[in-house]
Amino acid sequence: MICSSSLRLSGSGTGTRNSPSPPASSGNSDESQSQVRRIKASPQLNRWSRARSIRSGRKLDRSAVSATVSTESRDKSGSPVRSELEIELPMSPKGDSRSGSSDDEKEINGGKPIFMVSDGTGWTAEHAVNAALGQFDYCLVDRVCPVNTHLFSGIDDVEKLMEIVKQAAKEGAMVVYTLAEPSMAQFAKQACQHWGVASSDILGPITEAIAGHLGVSPSGLSRWAPERQKSPLSEEYFRRIEAIEFTIKQDDGALPRNLHMADIVLTGVSRSGKTPLSIYLAQKGYKVANVPIVMNIDLPNTLFEVNPEKVFALTINPVVLQSIRRARAKTLGMDGELKTNYCDMDYVKEELEYAGKIFAQNPVWPVIEVTSKAIEETAVIVLRLYHDRKNRCSMPRISKRY
């Protein structure tokens, strides 16, 4: 879908990355239209627009009104500079989607749309929306209030943003955005108000709060802006690569002599989730080693020689562990003629009891119950305890299970 817009910048500041287009002259309509730039939307948005237009048999009105967005930036000396961005906004669709037309209601009944708009990858917006939707599981699961989410990433100019907000107005969608550049965020707010689109700025309020707390102004640049990509191979990048390489080499009890080099040491019975948790933590830059606990096999002495505050014990429900081991044995071909007690419930319980005795002998090790937790949830607990201990604050109670 294509719509018309014109941009005009006044003042000494720069309110957006777009180059200003000449304002429409006051002459005849043909000459005025020739000076108005045509906006090319994303292919995905075009497909959605065409499909919905065909089904509804309605088109957007191309008439326009102007809206002025005032933005404030700072020059090199740190002085505030105000600028005004005048955007020609098309009028809301005739028979506004919020007026309750039957065609639009049929579209929305398939799931209320939420548009997530970001000037970067969209990770922040997507995870924030998913976290919020988790509060509505009671109706989402039963399809009482179905939701359709659409992510628009890399939106770094006003033209694309205007096209998305315009489509949101047509479909009755909510717009949730994380736009670091103040002028872009301000325009998103103004455009949504103009078209009556429900919206929420995720990044703006927290950025303003932190800026007030620190007493400095934010850069207003996306994390993926070219200006912030001068050194893609940064020290943090190499630190994460080093952590991943170390963690892979230390998997499943390999090279126990290197446990003192690890930031975090995980221990627990087989299939308690040590390896995936190790890799997840390694991707965040932590060197992780994991040591399996197996009956009749002595644990390495280095496990008891390292700083006990960096050792974390994992435990799991025996019924869940048995089902996981059965699936694992099946993939390894151990469920046929080859007899093993690896999946027997009695053996599973005995091995968990054996591990529990080792944990009790080392009360400084936190015992984390992983049965009903995702890897991310377990990682949050591990890192919270790790940093609490490192910073000597909020020390956990001895032998507490998490």
Automatic annotation (TrEMBL):
> Which residue ranges have biased composition labelled Basic and acidic residues?
95-109
Biased composition, class Low complexity, residue ranges = 1-19
Among Pfam families, the record links this protein to:
Kinase-PPPase (PF03618)
- Give the matching InterPro entries: Kinase-pyrophosphorylase, PPDK_reg
Give the superkingdom in one word: Eukaryota
**Disordered as annotated region, ranges:** 1-112
Q: Where is the composition biased (Polar residues)?
A: 27-36
Query: Where are the membrane-spanning stretches?
Result: none
Q: Which GO terms describe its molecular function?
A: ATP binding; protein serine/threonine kinase activity
Q: Which organism is it from?
A: Solanum bulbocastanum
Protein's name according to its UniProt entry: Pyruvate, phosphate dikinase regulatory protein, chloroplastic
- Key words of the record: Kinase, Nucleotide-binding, Serine/threonine-protein kinase, Transferase
